[in-house]
Design goal:
about 425 residues, alpha/beta, Serine Threonine Protein Phosphatase 5, Tetratricopeptide repeat, seven-stranded mixed β-sheet
């Protein structure tokens, strides 16, 4: 037996087929449109993997290099990083017979580190800094409102484009480690448009400055921690007061939202009639609250439970964001731990240097002890001449030296050394 389908029935079947295909997509779209978003902040560690508190700039090379270094210095200073003044650095280098020509070896780095202290030496090399200006035009079709006829007009464009490429290399003066150079490239542009002939070109400086700022931000991310904001959804269903938890969160009361989300989930679990969708949302909201508190393991526990109860693209995307946040947080902790260890090592080295300096510095007691050991007078005097000394040559101290048997020539050598 054959069945015949008329045009109306065919259209209905087509609609049903399309509907069945798009139902899942429509549900996801509705879920996104129907729920508010909140901002989470992901903290990225410095790109070089270490905490930076002090920087110095070696000689910069290439056209526009000084402008770039000025932009970097401004960014570092505004973020609390100590920057060694370039004139002072040149003075220090000259005093210690150092010459930097765009690079530095480990031996030289270690020597500079002893002078400047723990810091990063940065070399900036501009490989390209150029601009290009072009005159262009576009055709635009319009319709006359009166005659309804179409006609063509020309829009004239004056465009300025910058081409900028630089290389940045870092040297850790505390360890002598030389990082591989990183290269950045930009080509920002600006245009002026007019329907009445070609307008003036945008200023070359303005376009170049945009490239410099982009470069400063990328270099910023090499040496400093930086935040990336992401939007994630928070379910505000009326059932089980999920909406109340969102209201607390939107008011900035994260702790209140956290407590309410825990209550919401407890009520969902008690109610056997609770829909899987709402139970999943309650798990998700609590997981998100844990995420906002930087408790990533607990966050992932509840987010994964939400996904298992009723999956959705919103939940899977937030799980990915949470895993990313956890990974970044671990990297940041490693940077902080490394910084603590390096600080302790630096302090230990300072203490040892102070102790060694004190041990090698001659005092009144040192001289008295040598005399008691019956060392020859000439030996004691020579020792005084060749050593770092810190003597007390006041009247009372000189009297004590004489009583201890220190001879006149030795005392005169002590006075001359002061």
């Amino acid at each position: 037996m054959k069945y015949f389908i008329n045009k109306s029935q065919k259209l209905l079947l087509l609609i049903l087929l399309i509907s069945s295909i798009t139902t899942g997509l429509n549900a996801q779209l509705f879920e996104r449109l129907g729920n508010p978003q909140v901002t989470i902040s992901l903290t990225h560690p410095p790109g070089i993997g270490m905490k930076v508190n002090k920087v110095a700039f070696g000689p910069a090379s290439g056209t526009c290099a000084d402008q770039v270094v000025d932009e970097l210095i401004s960014d570092f200073v505004s973020n609390g990083i100590e920057v060694v003044d370039r004139e002072n650095l040149n003075t220090i280098l000259a005093e210690h017979s150092f010459s930097l020509s765009g690079s530095v070896d480990k031996t030289k780095a270690a020597s500079l580190g002893k002078i400047l202290g723990p810091s990063i030496l940065i070399f900036v090399k501009v490989l390209r800094c150029a601009t290009d200006q072009n005159k262009l035009y576009e055709k635009e079709t319009r319709q006359d409102t009166r005659t309804k006829q179409y006609y063509t007009v020309y829009r004239y464009i004056s465009r300025t484009r910058a081409f900028f490429k630089l290389s940045v290399q870092s040297v850790d003066l505390a360890t002598g480690r030389i990082f591989s150079a990183q290269t950045f490239e930009y080509s920002p542009e600006q245009s002026n448009k007019s329907y009445e002939g070609y307008p003036e070109f945008p200023a070359t400086f303005d376009v170049q400055e945009k490239a410099f700022k982009w470069a400063a931000w990328d270099v910023h991310k090499m040496y400093l921690a930086w935040n990336e904001n992401r939007l994630v959804y928070f379910f505000d269903d009326k059932d089980f007061n999920l909406k109340q938890a969102y209201q607390a969160l939107s008011d900035g009361n994260t702790d209140r939202a956290f407590e309410l989300s825990k209550q919401n989930l407890t009520e969902c679990r008690k109610d056997e009639k609770a829909k899987d969708k709402i139970t999943s949302h309650a798990h998700y909201n609590l997981g998100l609250c844990y995420m906002l508190r930087n408790e990533y393991d607990s966050a992932l526990k509840y987010l994964n439970e939400a996904e298992n109860i009723k999956s959705s693209s919103i939940i899977s995307e937030t799980i990915a964001s949470c895993q990313r946040a956890k990974s970044l947080n671990q990297s940041m902790q490693q940077v902080e731990e490394k910084a603590t260890i390096e600080t302790a090592k630096a302090q230990e080295a300072v203490t040892k240097n102070v102790e060694a300096d004190a041990a090698s510095t001659l005092t009144n007691k040192s001289v008295t002890d040598m005399v008691k050991l019956k060392l020859p007078e000439a030996v004691v005097i020579q020792k005084i001449k060749n050593s770092k000394c810190r003597f007390d040559t006041g009247a009372e101290a000189l009297s004590e030296l004489t009583k201890a048997g220190v001879g006149e020539k030795i005392i005169m050598a002590m006075i001359e050394k002061q």
